[in-house]
Specification:
By secondary structure, this protein is α/β, with parallel strands linked by helices. The chain is 37% helix and 27% strand. It has one domain: P-loop containing nucleotide triphosphate hydrolases (Rossmann fold). The protein has 8 helices and 10 strands. β7, α6 and β8 form a beta-alpha-beta unit. The radius of gyration is 18 Å and the shape is globular. The C terminus is likely disordered.
């Protein structure tokens, strides 16, 4: 792993999008480190660059300038096969809308990325059972998503992301559609999984319930990182445990 446990890094990244005759700057010289075992929140108004950072770190898009580094090695999403393999093996995704396959059971949804990766059936069964136990859904393995609550579906989505044992989990507004009690449960689970499994969580969010529980908060405005916010209580607690 790279220095200081950095899983994903952006260095001098610039990204623009063309809308008709107009060129819109999405990111303007961004440097960012995402570290193993932490929850890092990206905040900012719509159009500030959060989704662009998620796409770059998820190896879905590539910058116009600068570098994207995974475990210290430069990667390029334009190299489609290489980036697809890296994304399959090292990155998990969690979305606001869950993105579960409705005709599959909970276990089948969690198993699907392992099936695509060609993992043998016996290993898949073992890892699916382990992932469902981690998120407290072992007894729901045979249920379909529409039989679950929103919080349970989000936990299935997390199990599906974590079953690959990724270095990085990218989450886009993971609590936006959840009530306060359920959101708190999901947040606690995310913190536990990050700190116990050592995965880095990169989270785009407008939800203050979530940012209060993250280890670091990065604020964006007009494609730039604005001055750092004060350390959150979660970050201070995490540092005390690590000390």
């Amino acid at each position: 792993m790279s220095a200081a446990g950095t899983v994903m890094a952006l260095r001098g990244v610039r990204k623009t999008y063309r809308l008709g005759a107009h060129v819109v700057p999405a990111l303007q010289g961004v440097d960012l480190d995402v570290r193993a075992g932490e929850l890092l929140a990206l905040t900012g108004p719509s159009g500030s660059g959060k989704s662009t950072i998620l796409n770059l770190c998820g190896l879905i898009d590539s910058p116009d300038e600068g570098q994207v580094l995974l475990h210290g090695q430069a990667v390029d999403a334009r190299q489609v096969l290489a980036s697809t393999l890296l994304r399959r093996d090292t990155i998990g995704f969690v979305f606001q809308s869950f993105n579960l396959v409705p005709v599959m059971t909970v276990a089948e949804n969690v198993d699907y990325p392992l099936f695509l990766a060609g993992v043998p059936a016996a290993q898949r069964r073992e890892r699916v059972a382990e992932a469902l136990a981690q998120v407290g859904l072992s007894e729901h393995a045979a249920h379909r998503p529409d039989a679950l609550s929103g919080g349970q579906r989000q936990r299935v989505a997390m199990a599906r992301a974590l079953v690959k044992r990724p270095s990085l989990v990218i989450a886009d507004e993971p609590t936006a559609s959840l009530d306060s009690h359920t959101a708190e449960q999901v947040l606690g689970l995310m913190r536990s999984l990050a700190h116990e499994a050592g995965a880095a969580f990169l989270i785009a969010t407008h939800d203050e319930r979530l940012t209060r529980r993250c280890d670091r908060v990065i604020s964006l405005l007009d494609g730039r990182i604005v001055p750092a916010t004060a350390a959150t209580p979660a970050a201070l607690a995490h540092e005390e445990v690590a000390a």
